[in-house]
Amino acid sequence: MKSKKRIFALVLTLCLAIGAAAFAHGLTTSASSNGREIYNLLTTKYGFNGAQASGIVSNIYYESGFNPNAGGVCYGLVQWTGARKSAMRRYAGRLGYSGSSVKGQVAYLVHELKTSERAAYSRIKAAPNNASGAYSSGYAFCYYFERPANKLSRSRQRGNKARSFFAQYKGSKAAGKASSASTSAVKANKSSKTYKPGTYKLRLTMTLRAKPSVNSSAVGSVAKGKKVKVTTIKNKKWAAYKVNGKTKYFSLKYATKVA
Q1: Greater confidence, 179 or 230?
Q2: Are residues 109 and 26 located together in one domain of the fold?
Q3: If 249 and its partner were Cys, which of 182, 187, 211, 238 is the partner (CB 3.0–4.6 Å)?
Q4: Which candidate, 65, 86, 52, places its Cα nearest to that of 19?
Q5: Are 34 and 110 in the same domain?
Q6: For the chain, percent of residues with pLDDT exceeding 90
């Protein structure tokens, strides 16, 4: 038992060191952009108010400097390890995201908060939308989700930083939304791929959705490795798939056309 505790402490120390290195020299333009994207996702897609989102953003700043590829043993925005790191990649893939993307990692982070990390989630969601709430959210995320060594001092540090992010983002939220939407539209126009009917082999287990959209409710899954004959495609990449006579949809982003 003592040996396991020592190993855990060593891994935790390594993760914290990686996080410290990520922001020791200040944020790059790309990192600052990621910070804004994370804040926008949390407030516009996942239902957090500005103060609650600022608390989460503050912790991500200290964990990875907003770099979704930060680390090695500990990986990503909040430095997942072991089984959680693997679960994050699988979950992101089922939603049609890369496990190294900001969107995929934020989606899994919120999933963890709502399931295995409810102690943190309930406290974060109780935070009011003001500077005090930002502090409470940053403190709670660190204390109950990250659970680092020196919990009290680190939680206070991240709570104080959350106030700074709240002040930074407050008043520019609408502009941030517009900027994010505009950037997403440009990326979609540049990188969108149109799929054609045929037989596809899935490279990942894919989530089935009620409608051809990542925002639609999940209603099942299609297993990795399965070959599916696709005759109808909606919104450029969503394959229609019938289950018990009902049409559902999955993304072809992680599927290879074999015939």
Answers
A1: 230
A2: yes
A3: 238
A4: 65
A5: yes
A6: 62
